[in-house]
């Protein structure tokens, strides 16, 4: 699934889907230029044509406000709930990840989503990048721990169609990562979203201070 453009799972990536995703995410009236900037796909002309097509179907309200036209999603339209649901699929993924990890028999010391999906610019070829910290008292080959990770990877693939890229570290390895700073550390500091445990930035910062 293209989680930056979740509507493409059912609309084939048409500009109408990009427009609906933008309008479903706000109740503020937007000009065509503002919609085009937020959509990040398509030309200004293409977005305006898509807005006009959606307005003809009644799914988008267009109000003259010279020199501009202001557009909003018509939330009374029968199709509006579907547009809102599709726009919220990334949030639904986060909820499922948090719920799944919260129900683990052996909880992680920390879990985060990071990378392109966390930034909101992933596509169908992107991994769902997950950073999972194994508690210090759990062996790497602990059967229950490995079963949890394997089940999470299968769930992510079923939910999204994307591969789960799981980066696992032990709690004891966090200080080493913070000191050596492989690329994943920069990714976590820049755009990670916490799923369980402390914020990854705080965890890495604490590990750095404790190692001095």
Question: Can you describe what's shown?
Answer:
By secondary structure, this protein is an alpha+beta fold. Helix content is 50%, strand content 17%. It contains 11 helices and 7 strands. Strands 6-5-4-7 form a 4-stranded mixed beta sheet, with helices on both faces. Helix 2 (15-24) packs across helix 3, helix 2 (15-24) packs across helix 5 and helix 3 packs across helix 4 (44-56). The termini are far apart.
Note the main attributes of this structure.
elongated, 17% strand, Arc Repressor Mutant, subunit A, Beta Polymerase, domain 2, alpha+beta, 11 helices, 212 residues
Brief description of this entry?
With 212 residues, this protein is an alpha+beta fold. The chain contains eleven helices and seven strands. A four-stranded mixed beta sheet has the order 6-5-4-7, sandwiched between helices. A three-stranded antiparallel beta sheet has the order 1-3-2.
